[in-house]
Amino acid sequence: MGKAAGDEAYFQRGSLFWFAVITLSFGYYTWVVFWPQSIPYQSLGPLGPFTQYLVDHHHALLHNGYWLAWLIHVGESLYAMWVVFWPQSIPYQSLGPLGPFTQYLVDHHHILLRNGYWLAWLIHVGESLYAMVLCKSKGITNGQAQLLWFLQTFLFGIASLSILIAYRPKRQKQT
Fold it and tell me: What is the mean pLDDT of the chain?
């Protein structure tokens, strides 16, 4: 059985719909937090009055929530690196309730923290390498397509890998 034309360059990113929803939602959230005076509230249907209410009555909460989202997604990885590699430099007493909890983990479970940190990296790299194996076994030989699968799987893990696992290349009958 031979491969159908195009299988060697197959790549499918995650759902464009969800990428668009996430990008537009985050873009709108950024607009609301930083430039609320420029929003045409009256042109947004039911979203307009709701957004205006949030801006007028809860702008500080919106602003803090925005930075909390960044803190969670970016900060957690940096914090994990700090805890694992430089625990002696952490000002535990300045971290509020997180300080004693972190100090307890560092003092009593540092090996578990270190191993968990490296395990998370290993899982992401392993998934990405497995994506390369799957590419080859499914006849995806195009270097750019393989790189895209590697990067997407590294960033999104099993969400990307499941798309590649489900892919069934078309086969042509040999004559």
Answer: 88
Widest distance between CA atoms in the chain: 75
**CA separation, residue 91 to residues 72, 82, 94 (Å):** 19, 11, 6
Q: Does residue 77 sit within a domain? A: yes
For 170, the domain range is 97-175
Q: Which of 57, 75, 77 is nearest to 67 (CA)?
A: 75
This prediction has a pTM of 0.57
Residues 111 and 166 in one domain: yes
Beta-bridged to residue 172, according to DSSP, are 2
- 102 and 59 fall within a common domain: no
Q: How is residue 111 written in tokens?
A: 């090996």
Same domain, 79 and 101: no
Q: pLDDT of 39-95, one tens digit each?
A: 999 999 999 999 999 999 999 999 999 988 887 877 888 899 999 999 999 999 999
Q: Do residues 48 and 42 touch, judged by C-beta distance below 8 A?
A: yes
Q: Both 105 and 161 in a single domain?
A: yes
Q: Which residues contact 100 (CB under 8 A, 6 or more apart)?
A: 92
